[in-house]
Amino acid sequence: MLVIGVSLAFLTLATVNCRPNFAYNQSVPYTNLQSESFLTHRPDEFKPLDIFMSYNETIQWMAALEAKYPDKCKVEPIGRSYEGRDINAMVINKQPSKKVFVVANMHAREWAAMTSAIYIIHELILNSNNYPEASTFQWIVVPLPNPDGYMYTRLDRLWRKNRAPQQDNATGVDLNRNFAYKWELNLNEEDDDPHKETYRGPSAFSELESRTISDYLNQNSNSIVLYVDLQTFGEYILIPWSYTKDSAPNTDFLMSVAHAGAKAIISQSYEYYVIGTLSDLAHPVSGSSMDYCYFVGVKACIIILLTNEEYEIAPSTIIPYGQIALAAVQAMAVKAGE
User: Fold this and answer.
1) Peptide bond into 233 cis (omega under 30)
2) Is 48-337 a CATH 3.40.630.10 domain?
3) CA–CA gap between residue 92 and residue 302 (Å, rounded)
4) Using DSSP, how many helices (H) and how many strands (E) does the chain show?
5) Do 151 and 54 form a contact (C-beta atoms < 8 A)?
6) How far apart (Å, rounded) are the C-alpha atoms in residues 332 and 338?
7) Contact predicate 13/305, CB 8 Å
8) In this predicted structure, what is the pLDDT of residue 186?
9) Residue 199 CA to its chain's centroid (Å)
10) Taking the CB of residue 219, how many other CB atoms lie within 10 A of it?
11) pLDDT of residue 43
12) What secondary structure does DSSP assign to 228-276, as a single string?
């Protein structure tokens, strides 16, 4: 039986539409990039886990890792954003046939999700010997699937959507309500309002960014054993479905994968993550990437809601949250790959 328990923080994540407009905290370190040459030739000395990297820094760092460790990783452009930024995946362990697909930061303000994806990339390339179980999978990690929205959070820290113009002089679509599975269900009135932060878009896959993720899922659905959408906040591990309280096929298997992740988190941090579905823990949501992933046939599709904080986190928490994310995803990959 799914664990049912709703926290105020989680309900806020799911439903809040009041978004203050303020600049980011200037006291927080946002860069240590000395020069592109330094990063290209000495990537091991760059400290991506000390800061919140910009989009350009992230792209340069990923390229530098590929240049130095071509046998371990490859940067794969998988799409472009509305404003023309590349959406890049880091492919790690190119030989294994079983794939783990990790996407973070579809909601722009969820920086802990992005930095946790960076941690996963960092560890699986630079410290791969510490993760022998991970070496049996090919990892595809997309830290910035919403690069325009992420960069805009430097001006408006709580911005959630992408930056594509919409009707009535509105801007942006909630990418995680724009996928073409049950998108047509009008479950929440505010999801149809272009001025609200959960606006689902004028049509399913109206956005370049959601189509980028869906294209990769469709092209690799037979080889992906685990899809993880890293989000914040609330300390939850969610399984399909998001749009209904009805059980998804193979729910017992999905629960076993989620429990493997929760157990790994307890071992790593002594934090307890609640397992369930979004429709049980808050309210139904249509058009999610997780539901679409499961619909196209990926074996296990999961959302992890990291942190018990809100959206602004201290740089000192980047590594602890990254450790939680990697421990959970690796354990769930092992279970899903059985």
Assistant:
1) yes
2) yes
3) 20
4) 10, 8
5) yes
6) 10
7) yes
8) 80
9) 19
10) 11
11) 61
12) EEEEESSSEEE-S-SS-SSPPTTHHHHHHHHHHHHHHHHHHH----EEE
For residues 49 and 41, what is the distance between their CA atoms, to the nearest angstrom? 18
Q: Would you call the peptide bond into 139 cis, given omega within 30 degrees of 0 as the criterion?
A: no
What are the tens digits of pLDDT across the range 223-237? 999 999 999 999 999
* AA identity, residue 44: D
Type of residue at 59:
I
For 267-315, the pLDDT digits (tens) are 999 999 999 999 899 889 999 999 999 999 999 999 999 998 889 999 9
- How far apart (Å, rounded) are the C-alpha atoms in residues 95 and 269? 31
Residues contacting residue 144 through CB under 8 Å, at least 6 positions apart: 55, 58, 87, 88, 104, 105, 114, 150
Which of left, alpha, beta for 273 (phi over 0: left; psi -120 to 50: alpha)? beta
Sequence spans of domains, the chain: 48-337
